[in-house]
Amino acid sequence: MKVPLNWLNDYVDINVSPKEFADALTLSGSKVEGIEVQGEEISKVVVGKILSVEKHPDADKLQVTKVDIGSEIIQIVTGARNISVGDYIPVALHGSTLPGGKKITKGKLRGVESHGMMCSIAELELTKDDYPEAAEDGIFILDSDLPLGKDIKEVLGLNEKIVEFEITSNRPDCLSMVGIARETAVTFKTPLKKPEIKVKEEGDEASQYASVEIKDSDLCPRYAARIVKDVKIGPSPKWMKDRLKAAGVRPINNIVDITNYVMLELGQPMHAFDLENLQGKKIIVRRANDGEVIKTLDDQERKLDSSMLVIADAEKPVAVAGVMGGANSEVSETTKTILFESANFFGHSVRMTAKKLGMRTEASGRFEKGLDIENVVTAINRAVQLVEELGAGTVCKGVIDCYPIKNQPMNVNFRPEKINALLGTSIEAGEMVEIFKALELEVDEAGSSVKVPSFRPDIEREADLAEEVARFFGYNNIESTLLSGKSSTLGKKSFKQKVEDIVKNTMISCGMSETYTYSFTSPKVFDKINLPADSELRKAVVISNPLGEDYSIMRTTTIPDMLEVISRNYNRRIEEARLFEMSYIYIPESLPVDKLPTEKQVLTMGMYGNADFYDLKGVVEQLFQTLGISSYEFLPEKECLAFHPGRTAKILFNGQKVGMIGEIHPEVAENFEGPERTYVGVIEIEPLVSNANMTAKYRPLPKFPAVSRDIAMLVKDEVMVKQIEDIIKQRSSKILEEVKLFDVYKGKQVPEGMKSVAYSIAFRAEDRTLTDEEVNKVMEKILTGLKDNLGAQLRE
Amino acid sequence: MKEQLNSIKDQAEKELSGITSIQELENIRVKYLGKKGELTSVLRGMGALSAEERPIIGQLANEVRSFLEEKLEAAKNELVSKERTARLEKEVIDVTIPGKVKALGKKHPLSIVLDEIKDVFIGMGYEIAEGPEVELDYYNFEALNIPKNHPARDVQDTFYINENMVLRTQTSPVQVRVMEQKKPPIKIICPGRVYRSDAVDATHSPVFHQVEGLVVDKGVTMGDLIGTLQVFAKSLFGENTKIRLRPHHFPFTEPSAEVDVSCWTCGGNGCRVCKGEGWIEILGAGMVHPKVLENCGIDPEVYSGFAFGLGVERTAMGRFNIDDLRLLYENDIRFLKQF
Asked: What end-to-end distance do the CA atoms of chain A give, in Å?
C-alpha cells in the first residue's frame, strides 16, 4: 500500500520526518517497507531559456546554444533537434545528478565547450502518461514564463514523499488513506479528520433510471448504486492524477479515476457501468450459470461457473463480482449516463473466483480480505461528490441501496485486569479506553464491554482488545520478565534424542561430514537404483501439487540422495568424501494414502575415494561400540540390486535386519555418474535406540596373566572368518579373552581356492594363572573343531 | 709406596681427562681398579709393610681408590651426557611437517544452529517435542485457527497429499499435538523440517527448518515472552544483542509480533547486512490465541501461553555469512568442511 504523505496530510497532521513517521507506524503495527522521495535523485536541474541556436562548426548533428538560467548565460552543445530560440527547457547544470545515478559535468563536445545538458522527459524519469504533449525523443519543452533558474522539482511538483506499507491480511481497513490516517492519529495521539462528504444531487430520482436486485445475498450482502447523468468524460485534474500516480495507479479518465481515488481513500473498490448498455436498466446480483461467458475489461473471454458471483443486467453478466467489469458495459468517451456500483461481496467467494479465472485484481485482493459493509454508501457518496466537484456530470437523487440483512455490531467483553494479566502490564483502564476511543471502538458505560466498528471484524474477543492496547502502549514498553514463580519444568533430551546425538557425533569423529537433502524426490530414482518393479519401496506418498516431477514423491529410500550428493562432489573433481545424513523415509501403509505414513528415521552413510568396504564397516562398528551394542552380525547380502552382490552385507540385530552396507553396483554408480567404487550404508535409527546400552559397569582389572597363542590355518575361500571365530568362541569356554584376526593371505604357497587365516587368541582366567596344559587342551578342542567343521588345515 | 700411590692417582687422573668413549673409560677402570689393576697390585703389596706404615698407607690407598672411583663416575656421567647430547643433535626433526591427524567430519551448519538453539532452551527447562512431517490438515491448519477458506492455505503455499493431508508448512502442529496430550505446564520447543511450495532460489527452498517454542501455564504473560526471547537472542547472537517487537498478524497468536534482533554485523548502526535498518527480522511470536487453546481442550480463562518460531536456514545464513540458501542443500564437501 503506497501512501503519499501529502495526501495523508488531508486527514491527519504529520509533524515529524518521514523516517520518524515510518518508525512509529512500524512499531504500532503498520509495517513500513520503504520510503520513496520523488525526484530524490534529481539535483541542480533548473529552468532555462534558449537565447540562440547555432550550428556546431565541426559536427553536423550537433548544435551550440546559449541558455539563460537566470543567474548567468551558459553555452550548451546538444544533439537535440526539437528546440528553438525562446523555448523554456530543463537544464542539468555542471555537477547535477539525474535518476539512475547519472552525473552531468561540463566538458567539450567536438572541441566546443558545453556547460550542462538539456533534459528529455525520460532523463527526468517522467513518462508520456504524465506529459502527453512532451516529445518522445527530444528535449522536454516546458511552459513559457517560468522563472528562470527555478529548481525543476518544484516546477514539476516532484516533492511527494511516498511511504509504502505492508498491510497484514487481517487489516483491509488499512488499505486506505483514511485507515492509515486513523492508525497515524492513534499512534501520535492527534485528531483524525475524515473527509466531509456532501452531495448536492441536482438531478432527478435515481430510482427512475435503474433498479437493483440481489438474488444471492449469501455472496453479496449489500449492493448500492447511484446514477450520474450528463456525463462529460475527460481527463482528471492534475492534483488527482498526481495523487493516483504517487499511489501507484495509472490515471485513465475522470470517472475511472474517481472510482480508483475513492478506493484508495476509503478502501472501497467501486465500478462504473455505462447505463445505456445495461439491458432492462437492471442490476441483478446472482451466481453465474455454468458455461456462461463474459469478456472482461482486459478483453479476455472468461468462462464462468455456478460457484462464481456475477453482476448481470436483465440478459447477461456485465461484471465478475468484485473482480473485474465486463467490456460490454465499459465506460467510454461517448458515455452519457453512469451507474456507480459500491457493494460488499463475500471475501472467500471473490478469492476463489479470482483464482479460478486466474485474474487477481486490486479489487479482488481487497474484497477477499473482507471489507466494511457500512462503508458502501459512504464510498458511493464520496464518488458522486467528486463527480460534482470535478464537473463530470449531474448526480441523481438518492442511493439505490439493497441491504437485506443489516449487519449487527459485535460486542466484546472488556476486563482491564485480564488484559493486564495477559500482557504483564499495569496499564490504567482509562488509558485503555482512550486507545479504544481513538480507534472508534465504543466502550459501554459500565466499562465492561466494547462495541466493535464494522471496519474492524478482526476484533472478536478480549485477546484482540489486548493487542490493540499493546500496540499503542508499545510492545517494547512492556517490561520483560522471566517465567519465574510458575511451575518449574525439567529441560532435557529424551533417550532417543540422546542416541541421535551420539550417532551424529560418532559419525563426525569417524571423519564423516553431515549432509541435508530434500525429503521429496523423483519416481525415476527407483529405476536408477535398479529397484525391482514389484518392490514395496516403489509405493510412495505422492504430492498432489508438486514443484515438478523431480520433487513429486516423498522418499522411501535415501540411497539415491546420497548417490546424488556423491556424484555432485565427484563431478566437481573432489577426490574423496565421507558423508552421512540423519533423515526420514516415508512409508505409506497403503495406497492411495488414507492414514499418515510411517516416518522412519534412518542414518545414511556414503564414501568414495580412498575408501573400501572395511572403512565403512569400521565406521558402523565404531558406532555400535559407542552405543554399547554388541550382539550384531554382518552377513552377505546378494539380493539388493543397487549393490555389488559380492561386497554387500546386511546388518542384523538378534536376527532382525536393521540395515545394510556395501559397494554400489557399478551399473547404479554409472546411472548417477558417480565414482565406480562408492560405498553406501543405511541403518534404521529405531533399533539403535532400542538396543543401545550405555550403562557402563566397572569390572575389576585382571589379577592373573593372560596366555596368548597364535594359529594360522588354510581354509577354502568361501569360508568366512565369522565361521572360524564362532568355532573358536564355542570351543574355548570361559577362559577366552580375545580373538584377533591378524592376517588373511592368498597367493604364493597357498593353493588355489584356499586362503590362509591367522589369529592371535588370548586366554585368561579370573581366579588363577592358566597352565600350559589347560590352554593346550582348549587349543586342541578349537583345532579339532576347525578341522571337523570347516576342513581347516593347520599351518605349522 | 706412597709415591707409587700418588703417581697412580696422578697418572689415572691424567688418562681420564683425555678419554672420549665409555670403552676407554672401562679400560682405565680395569687398568687401575680391576683385579689385576695397578692399585690392586699396590694393595696386595701391603703385607710387606710395617705395622706403623700399614694404616697410613692403607688410608692413603683407600683415599686414592675413592678418588679414582669418583673420578671414574664423574667421567662416565660426562660421557653419557655428551653422547646423549650428540644423539639428540642428530635426531632433530622438522617440526613444521604436518601432524598425523585422523580427519574429523563436520556437523552441517543447520545442525550447528539447531543444536545451539536446543541447548539454550533445554537450559531454560524446555523439552524437545517432535511430530510428523506428513501431517493432517487439521493439525497444520484448522486447530491453529486457520479455517478452510483462509488465504494462508492457498494451494501455491502448501503441498497437499490429499484433501486432508499436507506436508506441514510449520512445526506448529506439533504444539497442538502436545497440548492435546499433556496438561499444563507445557514448555517445549519443536525443531523440524517444514515445506512450502516455493521455487528454489538464493533465498527460498521448498524444504526448510523451523524451531518453534510453546509455553502454556497459569499466568504466562507477554512480558515473559519478551524476556524469554531476549535471553534466547543474547545466547544465539551475543550478549549485546537487543530485540524489538513489531505488531503483526498470525492466526494462531493474539497479540502477535514479528521480532527483530539488532544486526549481528553492525550492532544496530545500519550496514549492508541489515540493509541499513540496524535490525534483522528473525522470529514470529505471540500469545497463544484463545481459540487454539480451546481447540486443544485448555481453558483460556485459566491458562495462557506464548509461542514463537524462527527459521533455521535464515539464522544459519546470517550466522555464517552464507549468501545462497542452495549451498545448504548442495552438500559440496568443500562447503561442509568450513563449519
From this structure: 93
